[in-house]
Amino acid sequence: MIARLEEVYVDRGGVTVLRGVTLQVGEGEAVALIGRNGAGKTTTIRALMGLNRPRSGKVYFMDRDITDVPAHERARMGIGYVPEGRRVLPDLTALENLEIAYGGKVPKDTLEWLFQFVPDLKRFLNRKGLYLSGGEQQMLAVARGLVRRPKLLLLDEPLEGLAPKIADSITRTLKQIRDEGFSMLISESGIVKRLEGLATKAYGIDRGEIVYEGALEGILEDEVARARIWGV
Amino acid sequence: MDMGLLAAQVFNGLVYSSILFLVSSGLTLIYGIMNVLNLAHGSLYMLGAYLGITIVVYALGGTPLAYLVAFLLVPPSVGVVGALLERTLIRRTYPMGEEYQLLLTFGLILVFDDLVKMVWGAAYINFPDPNSFLGGLRFGVYTLPLYHVILIALGFAVFLGLWTFFSRTFTGKVMRAAAMDREIVEAMGVDVNRVFVSSFFLGSLLSGLGGISAGPLYTASPGMGTDIIVYSFAVIVIGGMGSIGGAMAGSLIVGVLRSLAISFYPQLEIVIVFVIMAAVLLVKPTGLFGRPEFERR
Ligand SMILES: Nc1ncnc2c1ncn2[C@@H]1O[C@H](COP(=O)(O)OP(=O)(O)O)[C@@H](O)[C@H]1O
Ligand SMILES: [Mg+2]
Hints:
Helix content of chain B: over 70%
Strand content of chain B: under 5%
Radius of gyration of chain A: 17 Å
Low-confidence stretches of chain A: none
Strand order of the largest sheet of chain A: 6-7-8-3-9-10
CATH topology of chain A: Rossmann fold
Number of strands of chain B: 2
Oligomer: heterodimer
CATH topology of chain B: ABC transporter involved in vitamin B12 uptake, BtuC
Strand content of chain A: 25-35%
Distance between the termini of chain A: 34 Å
CATH class of chain B: Mainly Alpha
CATH architecture of chain A: 3-Layer(aba) Sandwich
CATH architecture of chain B: Orthogonal Bundle
Structural class of chain B: mainly alpha
Bound molecules: adenosine-5'-diphosphate, magnesium ion
Number of domains of chain A: 1
Helix content of chain A: 25-40%
Number of domains of chain B: 1
CATH superfamily of chain A: P-loop containing nucleotide triphosphate hydrolases
Radius of gyration of chain B: 19 Å
CATH class of chain A: Alpha Beta
Low-confidence stretches of chain B: none
């Protein structure tokens, strides 16, 4: 087991947005987290990253209770984060974005290693975040989450807002990363098909509650998940 | 108009610009990185001058060595005081909102003024004139006091140093990154709290450097912190809040114009600065350098 949330409750702005979420990512697993907008996907991922502290419940990483460990230490322990909306640092170049995430100058072999997954990165390494296209920003965000070679990579709607062709190329990159043995949790707001061949296991989430746990393909057939997530 | 007097006032203005830059660059970088407008920033400048007095006048008897020691010790000491203020008091206001921050740092001005009166007394204290041992620099028909020349050079050197620091070094880039998106930077493994203390240290150090530099020029008095903070505030509004280049441009404008006003239209000394500030705000509300080093989006 790489990471686990156990009965996690999170309040945001005085409202309870996670209600007893229990979820687990195993070694080398790519797990999908599926739910509508506002269901609590981002909050779940932020709870794993340490950006939202649970009111109650526990967060485990590599068999250690990290509930009270701050986000920057979690990053150093091996949790990589690809945030919703990418959040590339606009006034720094792509390379400088990577440096911040790496904690200093990125060694050449680490850069070469990143290029295997995101070859396009080579092209815009010295361009400022502000001047990158949406697809380029997402590639950089993935590279930034990966640069410390984390044990767990959290990806919050990595395919959102991208043209289909670019979304496909990001999906290919993510498959390649999974094949290298990295564990990941990937959220997606509706189109389960986009994760086929990438994630095997899936959780469904609605109104802060886990409503499905099982194989990715099964979620579309599951009555509860269909009713709660798609209203059919 | 007397050209000699004009040249002399421009020169004096540049000296004042340099002091203003040291103080306002610290003010603007703390604002840019942390979104904190520290009203007590001027009090740290005053503290720099008084610590300087203590070393130069009381401890080491006004020798050239005394000045050297003071310039080496005072700025980092004031930096530490600023960092401690952030850790102990100012950080408590982050969850509460800006009005608490302003109230707290305004309160600190009063505390610092009273502390200075208690420790050093309310009377003005003069430094021994450093030009008495530094001498002058011949410049055409003029002889320029060397200490003044050194201060102008110091202002530009610090400007270049800061520019290099923020654009070239890793620590400088981390500080800018923390200003852009503190949460993401935290999630990338940076202890942002430490970045914040460091920026308070650096900003306060600059104010302390301004204080020890200004002391020998203008004497030390308990009101000196309030004077400088008012002008520094105008400087960073004119230049663009959070911009180091803007602090330099604003300092040059305010320093030189104020100096000219003092000798040609003394009644305009303060007015002129605020007229310029109002004009800039009307035409370009983000200041002359609207694209600061520390950008929040
Ligand atoms: N900063 C916030 N303050 C208050 N409520 C929030 C905040 N962020 C998110 N929420 C609420 O929490 C719920 C879950 O949001 P989120 O985790 O972002 O869902 P998702 O990522 O699935 O769209 C939503 O109802 C949202 O309105
Ligand atoms: Mg979301």
